[in-house]
Amino acid sequence: MRKQLKKFAQFTALSSLLVLSACGGNQAAGDEDGESSGGAVKADIGVISYISGPGAAYGEAITNGLKLAQEEINGKGEVEINLVIEDSAGKQDQALTAAQKLMNSENVTGIIGPTLSTEMNVVGPEADLNGVPIMGTSTTAEGIPQIGDYVFRNSLPEALAIPASIDKAIEKYDAKKVAILYGNDDVFTKSGFDTMKKAAEEKGLEILTIETFQKGQSDYNAQLTKIKGLKPDLILASALYNEGAVIMDQARKMGIDVPFVGGNGFNSPEVINIAGDAANGLIVATPWYGEKEDDKVKEFVGKYEEEYGKKPDQFAAQAYDALYIMAEALKNAGEADRDALRDALAEIKGFNGILGEFSFDEEGDVVMEPTVLVIEGGAFKEFN
Amino acid sequence: MLIEQLINGITLGSIYAIVALGFTLVFGVLGIINMAHGEIFMFGAFIGVVVTSTFKGPLWLAFMAAILVTAAMGYLLERFALRPLRNKQGVSHLAPLISTIGVSILLENLSHHIFGPGNHPFRASFAEISFQIGSITVYLVQIVIFIISVLLMYALSFWLGKTKAGKALRATAENLETASLLGVDVKRTITMTVIIASAMGGIAGILVGMAFNSVTPQMGLSIGLKGLAIIILGGMGNVKGAMAGGLILGLAETFVVVYGNSGYKDAIAFAAIIVILLIRPQGLFGQKISA
Q1: Which has more confidence, A89 or A6?
Q2: What Pfam family does this protein match (any one) (chain A) (predicted)?
């Protein structure tokens, strides 16, 4: 009996260790001095990312992009950035705790993240209150930079992306009737839906039905069968790629062959990996196009593939550019000071990164030109 | 369209039913709600993905591998998370529930590390076979799922009711000490039950992978909770109840989408369960517990 007890204790100890290591995320040790020395501006940048849980794939891409940029920036020697990475697990409370921990550390000059707009809605006001500049790399919902002066983002908002893709799809397919499908338990997909509905109404499209689903759902047959019966010309789907790819797969199996128009979260090469041929006919507007004839883009894609063994998606690309923007602002600020960093960030204009030419408007929101893409023959192509 | 939705509902319901059968078996014998069942189900689905997509193995091999792995997991679960807590002085009756919750968290995170986050597609040519009847597309997988769920239900009913091992199992469920005094190898019976329930979870996992082409480390949680709701609806520990409950929930969820608002899918399905339980607190097929 005692032996059994011992075994059980060992097992629980082992399993709790495993769980801990799974939940903890990784943490870099804080740098001692945040001051500039010998020309290079040294700064800690806090990162809040979705590293464990259903959306861990986003956190993985984001932290990969950041680490790649960090390596390059530190290699150049003008700015020395130390990343302090915290896991939010996609939860508001955990994101807030992580943010408070970062803000309380004096060495942290600015924060990149959190991953979800839901999280930014609680973390943003807190960062603004504490005077810590914070930049979202994947928060595309309405109203994020409007939270406060210290809140920025470099992710293309849905309000810019979705109307651009809907416009092109209407033009090409002469669409009149649409069905809308969206995830109703996430600020991101909900906000995408609001934008879609508004855009569809403005273009005078007839909305046949509005269907919803939840994160992590695996069966969409009921909603899709209903949509199939209504015979739309286009399906507008505000979904993240994990759910979106499965939706397309099930739709094509059912015999729905109309094009899908997706939001920002639907735009990932993973859609093709998951759905295969079923992904053909997905139209998205994107800040990130990996096949672009551009030296910076090619270099980034090459390095990323070599390092992580897969193609970078927009989450990786936006994170990569975000750290470059941070570095640029730190360099302009000349010191690792929170207020100086904020002022320097606000002045970023015409920054030339892998996403194209990028500027902040007066609210800290994005000014840039999206590219509209369509999946054809198993690859993203420019949609004309 | 109505027929298509009916098929959707029955497919979903059959999957719920197979998961619920695994729950109900363990509850019936041990009186334990096995919260790790959903995660074992998820592992079954992943084994299917690994065999068919990564190693390009045939489907039957995927089934065999999934059954083997999940059965082994069932054994480990019994051996390390349940048995040490049984018949011990001072152990709360909630302890096994908590330890299965622990196992479920462990398994979810483990699969996250082994298989990676996100959706893993299930590439099996079998999943592509379909018939076209008018405008309705019926997939062979949908029929297979329904047949397997019915077969499992009958096999379990027969096994529990008519065979010697089944009788031993029911005796164990009635009273552990008495069964053991009457010569039933209680330890073996309990281990067998957990193993069988887990293997059924593994089968369900592969079927879900094929039907929906979506396998994620998180799929166990939601289906586990639904399985739990179903066995309460159908009557705890009742095999036919699990089947009926699964079909009711699957059809209810589907038809809420057809005639109403898909945003209320889960809400209405679970509201229906509450209403049924108010009328029949012991569940649809459950027996009244005499005071």
Answers
A1: A89
A2: Peripla_BP_6
